[in-house]
Amino acid sequence: MFRLGRVKWLGVVATIVALALTACGGPAATSAPTTSPTKPPAVPTAAPVGAATTAPTTAPAATKKLVIGYTASQTGAQNVASAKQVEGLKLWAADVTKAGGIKTKDAIYMPELKSYDDESKTDRVQALYTKLISDDKVDLLISPYSSTLVKAAAVVSEQNGKLMITAGGADDLTMEAGFKNIYQVYTPASRYLTGVVDMLKKLDPSVKKVAIVNEKDSFSTTVAAALLPYAKAQGYDVVLNESYDSNSTDFVPFINKLTPLAPEAILGGGHFQDGTTFAKQMKERNVSAKYVALLVAPPEPTFIEIGDAAQGIIGPSQWEPLVKFSAESAKAAGLAWYGPSVQQFMDGYQAAYKSEPSYHSAGGYAAGMMLQKAIEDAGSADPEKMKAALDKVDMLSFYGRVKFSVDAKTHGKQEGHGMVYMQWQKDAAGKLMRQIVWPLEAKSADVQPRK
Amino acid sequence: MKALQNVSLWGLLVVIVAATAIPILLDAPAMREEYFSMLMVIVLASSINIIVGYTGYVSFGHIVFFGLGGYVAFWLMQTFAMHLAPAAVIGGLFTSLVAMLIGMPVLRLRGAYFALATIGINEAMRTFVTNFDPFGGSVGMFFNFSVYDAYGGAKAAGQLAYYAMIAVALAVVVTSFFIKKSKFGLGLMAIREDQDTAMVLGVNPSRAKVITYTVSAFFPALAGAIFFFKNGIIEPGAAFDLHRSIESLVMVMLGGYGTVAGPIVGAVLYDRLRTFLITSETFSSLHLFIAGALLLVIVLFVTAGIVGWLRNRFTLVRRYVE
Questions:
Q1: CB contact A146 to B (< 8 Å)
Q2: Are strands A140-142 and A62-72 parallel, antiparallel or unpaired?
Q3: Of these four, A84, A273, A388, B102, which has the most CB atoms within 10 Å of its CB?
């Protein structure tokens, strides 16, 4: 038992452990302060969004401040993806500012971002969204990153009748919880890997046996839960369906199980670290599956660091720079085109942050664009009018198609946006390159079986 | 003497009630959210102090009771449309029962072995819940937003959660006070100082420790039930977050372990400091560094915590603050 002195000492130990744990949560975001006036990042994009999409006004319109609130996970488990999302959103705000604001008939709205660090915790999210609404009097909301935090923010947003765009939450369940003021940017999690099944069915009918191995967390489980019945319904023999704990680093037990079952395709994964390790260990153990598709990790530019183990790995992505959505493709599809081109977004991002955008960055930018589109269509920043406008949105942008469900049970759920599937392939010079392999209308290369 | 004891208890209760009434009187929702957060950490810190401060048994995984109570109550509310109050109480009682069953073997361990075992219990429970389908497995459980209609809407449900957390905070303070002032509490402190001597003096350490552990588990379970009700979602990562346990211990050390007022002072100060730093434009990116360094300094140089230091230094404080 501890004596008094030891208990005191334990205080020191507890504090050190607390510091260590918080340090494990990741560094604070380095990019920007919590309150961001709309001063553009280093270099704005080539063609600001608003300039191309709004008609000039006939009379001088009053300039109004449009305060957009959100929380960022500067610390905690979600800090990496959240930072990317925030960068995308800030780039959008800078572009709009440079274009002279969001122009309507009666007013020009100048966006101003207001945010706090939620520490990746739901209790902070609820307290801070209430603060944003009550104290900071924000006009509109953008969600935090990750499904759990989105749901916590959505409760507060809905309580207060605030319009919120869920930039970084793919969870289906959130959008089926009866919210009326929430709109989803991402393709729902249930559709993350079903596209791979469609691709295999179309492009390689020789594949009969499929294995599903996924992380045991909310997002990955939702993906796998939708994938399993879909694969079975498409006539595939699912020879293995197992999950592994978050933070797993040893996949040899799964690989040993997979080898005698000889699946032709392995689908699943979870997040960056586990997905990367899984891919490496499959290469080391010479797993012979022709196709491997993993969540989250492959689309990240740094996935290439595992070298040859990356070759042939397929990844579902919300957005890829190689997919050239354009005004022409919008016209061909009978959709309205909106916002900057893919290249303009890429150039602007590269100039502002000196790094490649990920799909989280594109999601952040797209979330801002959704608010802008709603204000322009509604001719006002009134939430009810904006909601009516968002319900009617069906458009194509650099991010892809966006259309929201208007069904009472799934109101606001994303139903227009689709996943694209990239694959790491070697070019003629033996260099690993990312290629789009599905859908066919977006492909930059044919899908290749692993060697 | 008895009157003085009551002064210290009534003083604490009056302060808590008066402070928590402010956001209601001002109709300030953001302030209410901040106070909700403060009340919750008061409950967590005070309950962990009952076992750590009074018996000297350091529980690193006390948050397991917060998660378990939250899960049981959430499941009852979602599956049987049960009201928050009975669901929380059932969740609390079930959690206490689990604590008793866990405590009987685990509290035989001493020192670091016990501390490590409590971490193991938390992780084991998190893994169990992650694989337990009735609780939603790794996805967890979520309310349809219409659940709040039964409470007069989500806003009213949020207010109810606030009042409920006030009640739990008051209950844990009262319990903490009466345990400390009772003969039973003296036995606990004898165990803390020297278990073998305490046994010679007639204290039954095993029985006393299990009862204390069972009681200390009840309040975080109630807090978990209320917190996740208000959140509308519960999942294993948030329910069994070991970081929250460590923070609770830090709050106890900061305020003063083994005292009634110490965990309250520590919890409020820690929560306010953290909130100030997070919402400050100047310090937001440094908040972890500043909070950590400050805490380290206080724990190193004010080893009895703030209340302990005040009690040691000022007679008047000793008389009125437990």
A1: no
A2: parallel
A3: A84
